[in-house]
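User: Fold this; tokens only.

Assistant: Input:
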Amino acid sequence: MGNKLLEIKGLKVHYITEDGTVPAVDGIDMEIEEGETLGLVGETGAGKTTTALGIMNLVPDPPGKIVDGEIIFNGENLRTKSREAYRQIRGNKISMIFQDPMTSLNPVYTVFDQLTEVIKLHQKVGSGEALERAKEMLAKVGIPQERGEEYPHQFSGGMKQRVLIAIALACNPALLIADEPTTALDVTIQAQVLEVMKDLKKQFKMAMILITHDLGVVSEICEKVAIMYAGKIVEFADLESLFTNPSHPYTVGLFNSIPDPEEDVTELTPIKGLIPEPTELPPGCVFNPRCPDVMDICKGEFPETVELSPTHRVACYKYHKGIGGENK
């Protein structure tokens, strides 16, 4: 670790709809170093998947469009790349595991067909070598090699997810984006898939962005965490800082809504209200209608990010000098 692999600066992704413009990702900043795992956490509709699609240059256009910002990967701004140049990066240097394993594989091609296609495309090898590499990748994710001749419908959900992991890692990418990779799986299979991903991350020495809404998974896998709400990153911290000192009221609300097995409580403390409609975001801080610490200033402009430590920053007026009192 120590070398910055990916840096996102002021990224904005908008969807133009009949009901208006949806700022799905609204000026976010985040970074990840080589070999590091970043957890991107938030409710459904927060903009997590759109952020990933933006990095991969896969935002559906229309109606989506990256309207501003920089995506700097290995020192190069990917937004300046041509479609063809991006195609050489995607699946090769940056790979993504999509949310639903049931629909992410092509039903009319065998597993070997789908694995070898990626390898031949990016590694420029012949069919024989691609097949050998495909067999190795299946073995790494715990699938018997003979099953490579089978079709996706012959696999369970957990096994399909392992196939997708094998495809994503076939070209030894520097960065893997995993979009809620265990959502459609039962709890025991979830644990197995996450264990496979942790082991392979160490083997391949790659960085990973894990999109999730499960802080328990984050605590097991991640070194950094970005908390996302309504298109904004409201808190960004190393794992220890976030878990010992959650600072944004939304982050505090997330932790308060998790049951603590050591405490005898009959009810959890939910976050009041609902995430706002994307076309009707409130002025000022997007969390202000639900925030227990809301002040008048919160309803004017979205707050500038405040650095609480070199590894912990938060976008909240509570920490602005002379306003919230925390940093006076």
